[in-house]
């Protein structure tokens, strides 16, 4: 049972990591994000882009959203320091402002980031996509692969990271978890050669996925970079994508270096970039042909956190 926090007359829940992991499955996260994005497209949700407060030692990251139609308002705050990163989500009633829960949000952040890529894959990847490549094996990588496998009939996966031991261990672990062959590869070229879907989830500062490697019909989820100092895709790769979606265009203007660089070079315009919510909400087209190369640039937004937090809260409290 969740602990209670004593705040005056109200007693919000304190929901620990173990409870989040026990309740927030990938299907639940996908369902919540799809509902929240659909509501956002029709004016029933609001998102506020991330803000950062820097100190010489570390950074506070703060982002908020409201899911009006479900009655929730909340924010995620996290502190990134050399000693590590600590996440929490505060969830409140959108009707009264009463604090409902304070939620430890490491796992919540991992699964909602994967679910965002899974949601984009549902609308933008070819329905017959069967092979996925994942670049990166860090803390966020497993949920990227799990989400894609949840929304498409994936038969095999290829993985690359710079460290041979890590990519081999990741491949073995995910093969056991997902029940499909997962192959560790020695280079990016080998990982993506046969892929229908590519997920990038790295800390790379310079592009690792180059446009020359892309083939017609691919779908890309670029989820690793959310600062102007990092890019996973080069300008040629972005330029080859006929359909580009982002989780929040306003936040993309502040953080999406993969898009901002080609826009500065006049290789791309904001008019070609579509909010994922508009696609999910039926206001903009999804994939239009099997040959299109499609891209979802994921930044990680507060509405995803609030939707995931609401799912956890309802599972624990109601």
What do these coordinates show?
It is built from eleven helices and 15 strands. With about 325 residues, the chain is of the alpha/beta class. The protein folds into two domains: about 5-110 and about 305-315, 2-Layer Sandwich (ornithine cyclodeaminase, domain 1); about 115-300, NAD(P)-binding Rossmann-like Domain (Rossmann fold, 3-Layer(aba) Sandwich), CATH 3.40.50.720. It is globular. The chain starts with a strand and ends with a helix. The strands form two sheets. Strands 10-9-8-11-12-15-13-14 form an eight-stranded parallel sheet. The protein has a seven-stranded mixed sheet with strand order 1-2-7-6-5-4-3. Helix 2 crosses helix 3 (about 105-125).
CATH topology of the largest domain: Rossmann fold
The tally of domains stands at 2
Straight-line N-to-C gap: 12 Å
The CATH class label of the largest domain is Alpha Beta
Which structural class do you get from the secondary structure elements? alpha/beta
Total helices: the number is: 11
Overall pLDDT level? 95
Please name the fourth-level CATH homologous superfamily of the largest domain.
NAD(P)-binding Rossmann-like Domain
How do the helices and strands follow one another from N- to C-terminus? EEHHEEEEEHEHEHEHEEHEHHEHEH
Helix content: 25-40%
Q: Based on DSSP secondary structure assignment, what is the total number of beta strands?
A: 15
Largest sheet: 8 strands, parallel
Radius of gyration: 19 Å
* Uncertain stretches: none
Assign the CATH architecture of the largest domain: 3-Layer(aba) Sandwich
Largest sheet: spatial strand order: 10-9-8-11-12-15-13-14
Beta-strand residue percentage:
25-35%
Shape summary? globular
């Amino acid at each position: 049972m969740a602990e209670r926090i004593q705040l005056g007359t109200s007693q919000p829940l304190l929901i620990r990591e173990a409870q989040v992991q026990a309740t927030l499955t990938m299907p639940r996260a996908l369902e919540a994000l799809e509902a929240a994005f659909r509501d956002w497209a029709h004016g029933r949700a609001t998102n506020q882009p991330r803000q950062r407060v820097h100190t010489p030692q570390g950074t506070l990251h703060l982002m908020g959203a409201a899911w009006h139609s479900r009655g929730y308002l909340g924010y995620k705050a996290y502190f990134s320091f050399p000693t590590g990163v600590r996440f929490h989500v505060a969830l409140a009633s959108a009707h009264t402002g009463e604090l409902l829960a304070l939620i430890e949000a490491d796992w919540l952040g991992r699964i909602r980031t994967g679910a965002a890529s899974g949601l984009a894959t549902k609308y933008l990847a070819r329905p017959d996509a069967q092979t996925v490549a994942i670049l990166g094996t860090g803390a966020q990588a497993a949920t990227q692969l799990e989400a894609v496998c949840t929304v498409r009939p994936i038969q095999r996966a290829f993985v690359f990271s710079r460290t041979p031991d890590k990519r081999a261990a990741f491949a073995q672990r995910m093969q056991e978890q997902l029940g499909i062959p997962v192959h560790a590869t020695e280079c990016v070229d080998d990982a993506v050669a046969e892929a229908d879907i590519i997920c990038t989830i790295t800390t790379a500062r310079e592009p690792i996925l180059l446009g020359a490697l892309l083939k017609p019909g691919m779908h890309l989820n670029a989820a690793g970079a959310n600062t102007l100092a990092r890019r996973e895709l080069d300008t040629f790769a972005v330029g080859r994508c006929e359909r580009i979606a982002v989780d929040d265009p306003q936040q993309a203007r502040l953080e999406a270096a993969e898009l901002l660089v080609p826009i500065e070079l006049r290789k791309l315009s904001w008019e070609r970039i579509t909010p994922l919510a508009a696609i999910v909400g039926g206001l903009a087209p999804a994939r239009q042909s099997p040959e299109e190369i499609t891209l979802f640039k994921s930044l990680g937004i507060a509405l995803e956190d609030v939707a995931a937090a609401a799912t956890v809260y309802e599972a624990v409290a109601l």
